[in-house]
Structures are given as structure tokens and as C-alpha cells.
């Protein structure tokens, strides 16, 4: 038996239950891991509310770090005793121990502790594919990044600085603006007191930016398009304010032949070679000190409802972890 969070129906934070769960043995292609920490991400809210459907009852949570306890037939890239971290696989990271597909596991360098490992994988790999693959930054660009003081945002601030990129970041308060700037964001815009489209045009002297990274969704989508220079790209990778409503493709043509993409980490990490390369680049940035993880909230696993309440009310900054 292990302690784990389960939902039997979708809804608010109250639907999450802290239960004793029977733990199966690791089958072919699977691994059993004892988790030292697991990460909290907005995608967990999407699964909890039913925006992203799954068969119920179900677990929640997409990333964690711990020690391999056992492996099933055919698993060769990890073995019992290995320190590992992961992002992806079926939801279920909110647990003391779990069985999951071994293909999502990567070995955690000895220099990176478990809490950092749990906090960095989904958000760090997201920042990696956004900045290095979806729209590959070369250095010298000026970009717009929404929610710059969030978990992905603070990693992106540091990564952009390391690449020589000028980041314009939107935030929800003066305190979050200061936090983003401390992590490398060049310009901040408080969207509660300023019009972010007007400010981007002002900062770029009317030129706009070649790329906007937008995890907010409905509330910022059209404004994000308006911030782009001709043939620019809007990378819509989240729905914190709700899904983007249907729109006409002429909206892209009229603004200068724009591009829109909706990437997913699960596509970018589907191939083992890609997962290994992306993880190695992320680990290298952490080990070099160019990126420092800001774990600004820690909750006991049994207090996950409060963690979700704080996340949805935008009280959290940086990364949040749950301790089993």
C-alpha cells in the first residue's frame, strides 16, 4: 500500500482524496519508484477539472523525483537504486510510490537534489522546448513571455538572459515584476495596471516581437497576436484563463501573415533520444548555475487541496513541490 491522491469525479480542489492505494508490481516496460518529491503544475488543474479528460477514478500529477525500487522486464536504461526524475506518463505523481512507464525516467545527476529534480522537469523541459525548439532563439531577439514570474516563466527569464535575449514579461503585481527582473527579465508589464499591447509597442518602438509565449489563453490571445511583428509566431502552450475561443484564420493574415502553434511537452519528449537531449541541456543549465530553481512553496502531499487553491488564485510564484 502507498499513500496517494485520487479523484473519483472532476471538480474543485475538494475532489482530491488522500487515500491508501494498492501498489502493483512493475510490469514489462515499467518501473516502481519511491518518490522524494513531486511537482505541482497548472496541467494538474486541467485534469482535476476535466478540461483534459481521463478515465476515473484517476491520479493526478505529472512530475516527480525519487529512487528506483524495481523494474519490469525489458527495462535496461534504469535499475534499482538509481536516482531518477520524470515529467509525463499517465497522471499519478501525487503519491509516495508509484509504478509508471520506465521510458519517461531519466537519471538525475548527483549534483541535483530530489526537490530540484521534482520541481524542474515539467517546467524546465517546457522552457527548453519553447526557447530552443518551437521558436529557437539565437540571441539578440526581443520576445514577449506571459506569466514571467511563474514556474516556467522564471526559468525562461534566466534561460533568455543566458542566450542574450531581451525578455518582456507580463506579471500580475509589482512584487512579481521585481521577482521576474531579479531572474533576468529585461522589461516587465503589470497587466492589471498597464495595457500590455501598448507597452510592447512602446518598448519595441512599434516593431512588435518575433515571438510571444502565451500560457494564459483566452484573456491574452488576441492581444498576443497584436504584439507580433509580421510573420511572427504565437506559441500558445497553456490555458490558465480558459481555452482560446475559435477564431478566423483571417485574423492571422490581417496582422501580417502570422503563425500560431499549440505545442505539447508530450510530443517533444515522445522519442527517447529527444528526451535525453532535452534533459541533458536542462541539467547542464542547472549545474552551470545559469538557471537556479526557485522553489517558493512546499506543501505536504495531504495538503494538496490548499496547494491547488493557491495556484489557481495566482498566489504562487516560481516552482511548487509536494512532499509525500
From TrEMBL:
GO cellular component, one term: cytosol
SUPFAM superfamilies named in the record: GroES-like, NAD(P)-binding Rossmann-fold domains
Keyword Amino-acid biosynthesis carried by entry: no
EC number: 1.6.5.5
One MF term in the entry's GO annotations: quinone reductase (NADPH) activity
UniProt key word Membrane: no
Enzyme class: oxidoreductase
Parts forming coiled coils: none
Domain Enoyl reductase (ER): 11-322
Entry protein name: Quinone oxidoreductase, NADPH-dependent
Annotated gene: qor
Amino acid at each position: 500500500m502507498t499513500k496517494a491522491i485520487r479523484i473519483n469525479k472532476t471538480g474543485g480542489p475538494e475532489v482530491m482524496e488522500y487515500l491508501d492505494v494498492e501498489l502493483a508490481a512493475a510490469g514489462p516496460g515499467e518501473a516502481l519508484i519511491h518518490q522524494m518529491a513531486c511537482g505541482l503544475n497548472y496541467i494538474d488543474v486541467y485534469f482535476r477539472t476535466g478540461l483534459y479528460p481521463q478515465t476515473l477514478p484517476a491520479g493526478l500529477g505529472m512530475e516527480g523525483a525519487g529512487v528506483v525500487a524495481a523494474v519490469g522486464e525489458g527495462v535496461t536504461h534504469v535499475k534499482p537504486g538509481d536516482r531518477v526524475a520524470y515529467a509525463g506518463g499517465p497522471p499519478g505523481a501525487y503519491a509516495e510510490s508509484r509504478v509508471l512507464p520506465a521510458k519517461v525516467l531519466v537519471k538525475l545527476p548527483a549534483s541535483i537534489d530530489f526537490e530540484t529534480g521534482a520541481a524542474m522537469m515539467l517546467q524546465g523541459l517546457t522552457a527548453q522546448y519553447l526557447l530552443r525548439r518551437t521558436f529557437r532563439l539565437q540571441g539578440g531577439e526581443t520576445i514577449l513571455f506571459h506569466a514571467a514570474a511563474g514556474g516556467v516563466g522564471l526559468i525562461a527569464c534566466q534561460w533568455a538572459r543566458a542566450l542574450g535575449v531581451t525578455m518582456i514579461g507580463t506579471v500580475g503585481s509589482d512584487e512579481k515584476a521585481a521577482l521576474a527582473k531579479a531572474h533576468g527579465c529585461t522589461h516587465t508589464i503589470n497587466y492589471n495596471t498597464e495595457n500590455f499591447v501598448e507597452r510592447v509597442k512602446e518598448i519595441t518602438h512599434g516593431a512588435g516581437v518575433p515571438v510571444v509565449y502565451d500560457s494564459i489563453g483566452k484573456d491574452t490571445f488576441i492581444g498576443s497576436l497584436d504584439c507580433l511583428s509580421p510573420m511572427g509566431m504565437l506559441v500558445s502552450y497553456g490555458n490558465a484563463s480558459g481555452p482560446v475561443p475559435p477564431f478566423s484564420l483571417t485574423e492571422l493574415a490581417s496582422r501580417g501573415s502570422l503563425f500560431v502553434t499549440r505545442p505539447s511537452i508530450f510530443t517533444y519528449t515522445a522519442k527517447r533520444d529527444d528526451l535525453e537531449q532535452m534533459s541533458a541541456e536542462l541539467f547542464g543549465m542547472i549545474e552551470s548555475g545559469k538557471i537556479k530553481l526557485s522553489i517558493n512553496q512546499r506543501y505536504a502531499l495531504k495538503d494538496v487541496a490548499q496547494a491547488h487553491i493557491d495556484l489557481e488564485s495566482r498566489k504562487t510564484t516560481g516552482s511548487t513541490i509536494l512532499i509525500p
